[in-house]
Design brief:
The protein is an all-alpha fold. The protein is built from 6 helices and no strands. Helix 2 runs antiparallel to helix 3, helix 3 runs antiparallel to helix 4 and helix 5 runs antiparallel to helix 6. It comes from Piprites chloris (Wing-barred manakin). InterPro entries: Spectrin/alpha-actinin, Spectrin_repeat. Keywords: Coiled coil.
Length: 254
Amino acid sequence: EKAVNLKKDLAEMQEWMTQAEEEYLEKDFEYKSPEELENAVEEMKRAKEDVLQKEVRVKILKDNIKMLATKVPSSGHDLATELNVVLENYQLLCNRIRGKCHTLEEVWSCWIELLQYLDLETAWLNNLEERVQMTENLPDKLDAVNDALESLESVLRHPADNRTQIRELGQTLIDGGILDDIISEKLEAFNARYEELSHLAVSRQIALEQQLQTMRETDHMLHVLQENLTDLDRQLTSYLTDRIDAFQMPQEAQ
């Protein structure tokens, strides 16, 4: 009777493993929304816990069959053979579910990381847009134009590492058919805004550089003219002081 019960327990265990494999490993999942992906991750975590909890039952079966084998070798031998098959299938099921759970957790982590990089770069784009707007309607002063140019250039020196991560993470998920529509839409919107603002910022940078160069040249010309006028004023003052008649002066002084 004990052998019959153990045989029944082995059959039930094998049936449960078959059902678990069908439910958790053989279904084709399509993750088209973050909610679907997150639910799948949580489901696989529960599946992993469920399978690992059966380890106690498997151990009890193993101990009972070994005990029976010492008392009734013939029955124990047959059950031991069935037990080995169940143990092998159970270990395989555990490994496969652990593997799938790990994969889904990695995919979820990849999605969260992508969102974080997009947030960082979006904040940078907002800052860039603000700096570009600050270059409009500047006062016609050398310091104001120079400060605006330096401020814009400091933002434009932003490294490209984050954009590389966005591209690679997005492509990895899209290649796996995971959230591909959502990610494609997000990347398309981000890239379009990045290209537009980058071109606008570079154009403003060039315009400010040209404006600054013109202002510096004008400032230099005014400085030279001021020096010449100062020299002429000094010379004319000396003529007046010495009461020199205008017709006695050189032609240019007249």
